[in-house]
Amino acid sequence: MLKRIEELIGTDCPDLPSLLDGLPVGVALLDNEGHVLMLNKALEAMTGYTREEVRGLPCRHVLRSRACLQDCPHGKDAAPGVGIETDCINRHHRKIHVRITPVRVLDGNNRPICVLDVVEELTALREIEARLSQVADHGQIVGRSPAMKKILGLVPVIAQHDTPVLITGETGTGKDLLAESVHKASPRSREPFVRFSCGPMPSELLDAELFGRMQGPDGKLKTGRFQQAQGGTLYLSEIADLPLSQQSSLVRFLDEGTIVPVGAGKPMRASARLMASTAESPEKLVQEGRLREDLFHRISAIRLHLPRLKDRGEDLGFLLHHFMGHYATRFKKNIAAISPKAQRHVYAHDFPGNVRELKNIMEFAAMVCSGDTIRTEHLPMHLTDDAETEAPVRPVEKSRKAGRKNTEER
Amino acid sequence: MERRVLITVAKDEIAPRFDLTTEALLLTISESGEIVLRKSFLLAYASGDELCDLALSRDIGTIVCGGIEDEYYHYLRWKRIDVIDSVMGPVERVVSRLTEGTLKAGDILYDRATEKK
User: How many angstroms separate the most distant Cα atoms in chain B?
Assistant: First the structure.
């Protein structure tokens, strides 16, 4: 059979090698036993082997794909022509994400002559996917934990209505981003999203900042945040920091849809959607008299709680890689991985600053890292006080003892 | 001085990938090229990490394997373990080459399918 295919390549069809070389994807021509007859140029570049070197070798040693070793598609009757996404390791120790599609070549009598393994490199595709996921549907907020999935699933629903939203969660959990995500998913997304931090400020200035001020003898209005957010969304962060008098003005806005600018004789209509957030428990704030109960009940018509990063399970690892990719792109670096030891340092941290703190850590690490892997020495000092200089790359350093238990001598 | 060599194995050939290996052969080779100890190990699951741990705990000086990812390759080199990688062929031929002291990275020790015919 092999001779027959060689004849086909060498004499009957002399242009086959140049035809395969012209293809932009990798192609391995295999006999029916899975031995390599030739590689095209694209696959030579991908694997690091020339066709002469690997001629006659079992394809599992040349492609070295996970699929070859765990679920070899050759010799199976089912699903020829269906691609398998897997990874390969080339001669230069590089792991490459690929899709391998085996195609059987049959003769006129429907007998198999050979197999073409079409190997497409997915690295570029994976990078694009990663970049796109950064600007996913929900603004910039991302998460894979069940708690976050539930919240992100609610965003499009909540966005369709003008009901006030109260977002709670510790500092750095992403309250502002979530508010922005709701706005972006809403019919108001083309209108402004105005964020106002209710920090300490003289009461009259605060009134003017929020509701606007009538100026001069001709009564010209200097716009406040409500006017700036007209048709859009006004997001008040740390609403409990607002003095009670401004809180009562918000109650009026929520009841009547009107506000009274400073110096104005009569109320004016405002059409902003109101969202607010607090890092503390709103019930506790009401008990302490820092949040008006009537405002609390109105603003919390929809209430979303963002969990602490430590309570978000798999999100820690996911966000770590998400921010690593984000800052690698931003700083134009080829950072592709974080060493297991550095990762352990990050995982061991308590993250009182939640996602914001993780983001800052990864920004620092990406800034400092000059290679392709973030190592312990690239992490901020407070994470690695007791760390010593680390191995160039250490695979997950699990407990040796546990490893020994799994290793049987024969 | 004796050398301790760990060979990653799949059936009777060198495992094509280090990280997907579940069997390993440990050889202690004397200075004269004699095999003084031969032991097989079976891992509970394929794991490059377990293999690294095994190599370190057994004072391995050389690892013979097929394809190996950068991460493991540099780690083992950093731990002063020689890595003879991208070796293809039946285990016994590899062992012969090892005892002769002629095995090198990238060696292909198969009879080619084309040569058979």
Answer: 45
